[in-house]
Design a protein that fits this description.
1 helix; 51% strand; mainly beta; three-stranded antiparallel beta sheet
């Protein structure tokens, strides 16, 4: 919540974290909460491209009623310790054992994945994003199930 003053310019910062490719439009409304009136409206046009996939992991489909655990390897390419945040384009199918990793310089770690039974029951193409703390994509892995 913020206050708009007459005859001034107000900067509004938006954070866009796409998990899918393509163009999308979002309607942003500024509402006077006291009078419940829309005072400004903007259309935000976005365009997201697929990042470069550094490695694809092939995982066979299976019939299971319980989640499946998988590990994929990630190496911090930097000369300093760094914090990374994990996301994926299908969070209903994949969970992470840890959503944030602190990785020492040049160290390799396993990213623990928990795949839902639904993810394993039919072919899926899932992207795993390794982002920095500002949510900039550092690396992208693909899981090809099926």
């Amino acid at each position: 919540e913020f206050m708009l003053l007459p005859s001034t310019i107000q900067e509004v910062k938006l954070l866009y974290e796409p998990t899918d490719t393509g163009t999308k439009n979002y309607m942003i409304n500024v509402v006077d909460t006291k009078n419940r009136v829309v005072v400004e409206r903007w259309v935000v046009h976005t365009n997201a491209n697929l990042p470069v996939v550094s490695k694809t992991y092939e995982i066979p489909t299976g019939t299971t009623v319980s989640p499946t655990n998988k590990n994929i390897s990630f190496t911090n390419p930097y000369n300093t310790s760094k914090t990374f945040r994990l996301k994926c384009n299908k969070p209903e199918l994949v969970k992470f054992r840890e959503e944030e990793l602190v990785v020492a310089s040049k160290e390799s770690v396993n990213i623990g994945l928990i795949l839902s039974p639904l993810a394993m029951s039919h072919p899926n193409y899932i992207l795993v994003f390794v982002n920095d703390v500002q949510q900039k994509c550092e690396e992208c892995f693909a899981l090809r199930i099926g």
